[in-house]
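[SOLVED] Predicted holo structure with zinc ion

Edit: marking solved, answer below. Original request kept for reference. I posted the sequence and ligand SMILES and asked for the 3D complex as structure tokens.
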Amino acid sequence: MNSLIILTAIAVFVLVIIVRAVAAAEKLYTAANIPPVKIDVASAAEKLSAAVRIRTIACDEIGETDIKAFRDFAAYLKKSFPLVHSEMKREVINGASLLYRWKGKDKQKKPVLFCAHIDVVPVETGTEGDWKYPPFFGAIKDDSVWGRGTQDIKNQLIALLEAAEAMIAQKFTPERDIYFAFGHDEETRRHDGADVIAALLKDRGILFEYVLDEGGSVLDNAVTGVKRPVAFIGIAEKGFVNVHLEAKGGMGHSSMPPEHTAAGIICRTVSRLETHSCPLALTVPVKQMFSALAPVTRPGLRMVFSNMWFFAPLFKRIFALSPQGAALLRTTMAATMLSGSGAPNVLPQAASAVVNARILHGESSDTLKSYIGKVIADSSVSIEMHQVYEPSKISPVDSYGFMRTAGVIRALWPEAVIVPYLVAGGGDARKYEELTDCVYRFTPARVDNSEMKQIHGTNERVSLQNLEDSIKFYTAMFAG
Ligand SMILES: [Zn+2]
């Protein structure tokens, strides 16, 4: 009798697993209309190329010499997009960031905001010669525009303006107000660009239907077991903090050292953190990502992804073995900077480390600080949290903004599976959280892993096909 009950229970369990796996269905978003707007991709490529040549390099402290590049950039945009600049109201914020407003027909409809940033990361010293074409030359070769910023994110900025310019040329007026916010300090996480724009908009009492910033793209070969390209729309962003750790030591000569120098203590501290990773958790955006992937992956994984209620503990352990998986499942900690004494034979009076952490939803900078305190268990090491950003809000996947973005993706890349996801890096998007519940992160381009590596790296480039598709993408977004 007992064995019959057990067998029945197992049969029911297996049945539930199978039924859930079979029932997992891809959400098919209705494709949006792509308006018949004439796009001149050659001209857009020239404009992007010229934009690359203006070296708007991000810097920790912006001085007079650096601000000149941003002024030149603003002047260049004014000259290159005359219709945008006559039709829209433009404001210059702190001499470098730009805010545009394109007036729509219907005052009842909430406005929408599209973001990009003007600043780019520098080229790492010593790697200039590795570039096929010089990084600030803006070569248009091999069906691509080459140079720093062509993927992050002057391509998006130019595509937004080019789409608007083309639509204004065809006498198009949007239904609702459309804003563009182009910050100038995204790469350095300072607070005088997008933060100031967001505060200004808040002061004016403006609330947005949705905000769309850079983020995921349509990726080929992105997920093991999924043959189709995957379009990742970021719906949340992990938190960020630089944890400063410092150990104090005594003065003296290294010929008569104490048992542990400050440098030794700080190394032990970092080592403890590396061997005590933060706990794993399956948060809402990650669950949503896997349930969207379930119907399109191979049968074994389909079973797992659609039955996380059972497989989560095992899944988390296996998936967290890769750095990409771990980034989605836990607060990560990366030791990035170390310092000790200034000379080989001098004991350090203090030694320090900086650990860059990305905080998962459900945790905070406070919970992380107490976790680190417990792990290092050493009262001689001080812990300070710098440049803190708590995890972002999680945006809904059934909102107008998400549906619109998904609908336009469907129209342009019909073969792609559309998946919400958690952004492990960070951008300007979160700065607008107080102005809307719907913040999305998507860069309209179809790329593979090798192209992803060019972001902040060598040989950054955007294909003319992606440039054209991104312009089309925005024309369709503006038409909604
Ligand atoms: Zn960027």
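OP edit: The chain has a mean pLDDT of 94. Thanks to everyone who chimed in.
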